[in-house]
Design a protein that fits this description.
Blueprint: E1 6-11, H1 40-49, E2 57-62, H2 66-72, E3 81-84, H3 90-102, E4 109-114, H4 122-139, E5 142-147, E6 158-164, E7 176-183, H5 188-197, E8 200-210, H6 211-221, H7 223-234, H8 238-245, H9 254-259, E9 265-269, H10 280-284, E10 288-289, E11 295-296, E12 300-303, E13 309-312, E14 319-322, E15 327-332, E16 335-340
Parallel strand pairs: 1-2, 1-4, 2-3, 5-9, 11-13, 12-14, 13-15
Antiparallel strand pairs: 4-8, 5-8, 6-7, 6-8, 7-9, 10-11, 15-16
Helix pairs in contact: 3-7, 6-7
Amino acid sequence: MPDSETYALILAGGSGERFWPVSRNTHPKQLLKLLDDTSLLEQTLARITGIVPPENILILTNAVQEEGVRKAVSGIPDENIIAEPEKRDTAPAIALAVGWVAARNPSATMVVLPADQLIRDEVAFQHDIRASIKAARLTGALVTIGIKPTWACPSYGYVERGRRATIEGFDDEATVFEVARFREKPNAELAETFFSSGRFTWNAGIFIWALPTVVKELTHHAPELADFISELRRSTDFSATITHQFPKLPKISIDYALMEKASRVLNVEATFDWDDVGSWISISKYLATDEGNNGTNVPVSQIDATGNIVFSKNPNCHIALLGVANLIIVQTPDALLIADKDQADRIKHLIPKVPKELL
């Protein structure tokens, strides 16, 4: 059953530029229905609603995407969807949510979730989140979910684990470690070292903490954010306070502002599946494949074509491939992308060259 003492923040303001031309400014990755008839945001909301009552869920987005977010979700109060007046990175966004929760229940527990991750094992996810909530309440530590690496990925942040955590009264079978330190995205050689050591998890950006703990830590390590939280708690006009004060906050990630400096951080190892689905390469593993290992969501005819990714927004489209390999081909009603798969991460660099009406 949902826990009335627990609140959740869903961060739904990402741009998803690597998914152009399907992804647009007003309709980014978290709002796309890439793999089935539900968006990543809808899936995130469904997963956490089993733990947190709908009235305790805050969705934070931006003005450009607010309309799309409101259309995509249902079941939570309209006032629980807030558009940031200006993009300031994850630490100010989380501070805003902490202030929102603190004004309602200053002793609550809080879960922070990105809106754009693919997690299909909802039962395991909810178990791990509940275990993390319990660990946060018992220890007064900040808790982060760690994803066990499946390869030496240089595109993710890493968490270096220390000893196994001892938590009095913790009767869950979840694996919990003390965090030794957070590590930024490594180069390929260092990522291989991390992976081989077995001491590292990927940083999923999923955080759990008790409100008194996070406020105390922010007061010590990020006083400007703590002051903003205090203003929100005592504000008689919440929206006006956000409008006037939020743009003044520093642009800084929650890792830099808090997690790397906090007095105690615990790492709960995820038992659920997890995919950041950060590019068309990530999506390809979920598409149907033919004898040439071409991943596609529409019918394809091919001769001597191998390892291509084909994605069309027209379900009646038939695409023919002849003698091409290692391409990303994405079709929408108004745009066509053809790219080398090895250049997938550079698709976002095309954005400044694309006509504004296609953004």
